[in-house]
Amino acid sequence: MSAWNVVAEAADLAEGEMLAISLGERRLILYRTATGVFATDRRCTHQGADLMRGYLDGVVIECPVHQGRFDIRSGAALNAPVCVPLCTYETRLSEGKIEIKTA
Amino acid sequence: MSGSTLTDSLDGDPVGEWYSPAIPAAQLRNLMKRCDRHAALNFGCWLLLCLASGAGVVAAIGTYWIVPAVCVYGILLSFSYAASHECSHGTAFRTRWLNEVVFWLTSVIFMEEAVYRRYAHAEHHTHTWFNTEDPQKPYGIPLSAWQYLKETLLLTFYQQAFHRLLRHALGRFTAHERQFLPEPERKRVRLDSILMLACYCGLLAWGVVARSPWPFVLYFIPRYIGGCFVNLYINTQHMGMAEDLKDHRLTTRSFRATRWERLLYWNMNYHIEHHLFPGVPFHALPRLNAAIAGELPPAGRSVWSINAGIVRTILRPRGGSSSATTAAS
User: Fold this and answer.
1) Which residues span the domain enclosing A88?
2) Does B133 touch chain A (CB under 8 A)?
């Protein structure tokens, strides 16, 4: 059964910023962009680099080690050396809090 | 994040155990910002210099001036290495298609298939200067005089480049290559390798069959002569440095360069800085250097002094001490 989980205060995440969070065993990143709040896994699908150290450009997160890029809205792998999509999570803003939906 | 460094690490991060200087996350993010302007300027200057010196070669044919003209043109042409390298990271241009067009063009001039180059170079950044794991580590320490000459005179490069192109054109990949090159990408590497071999063979056939000097004076000979010169720069990056260590300050060198060198070499004289933070584009490396200079070894005086230091180390009688050279040789 799916559930919404409060993971951060909306005020803690400014536009263009990223926030590392844990949700149970999962290590995730929250992103706030001009088009909304998104959440993905924190680990790059190529060799496991920490995307929290990466570069966020609009809705694209770039791996800090090999510069593979992902669309944070869909998780799509955009260019080599990443081929496997990044896992994304549904998010919503509710009463000043950021929530993530988990299965 | 502003004003803070990232302190909680992620298990399994391939570079998590590597030395990394402390730098505020906001400052690093600012250094990683992309734009098209700097790469357009560097690439435009390089292209204009190549066209002008190439015109010089054409004008000098049939005279003794052809020798210096081919040398100058060859050196400029062979600095295609620098643009190809920056584009392999995708950090040259913010506009992706521009990055890929320049990457493909300069990689063909440099004689390395672009898709393979990108994956092999990514692996080089994961396993910098680790024996057997770094696919861009063709030599180790102690380095012999013959190995230094083979490397500098492009013998290693041509031997490996053509052997690899031929293997890839035939669809053959080594076990190591299969580890870092995903199966779907191998098809692209194979097709590109066939096209590149066809290009080089076509040029060679044109020169031989039509008895035309142009493929030789505008590509093969200058690329060789200039390649030897540019290899003196590539030698500075890791040659003779310590191996199998997770600290770029010990395995990699930076050196002080003139404005012209920095333009043609796309700031890769800041090579330790580049390896520490490969997501920082070339134009921001001087600013990165200023931010972390206190944590870096002294930069080498010049490309010449580093090569002289490498040669001195090679020629020195070997005792029990390590034969790795220092960063500032």
Assistant:
1) 3-102
2) no
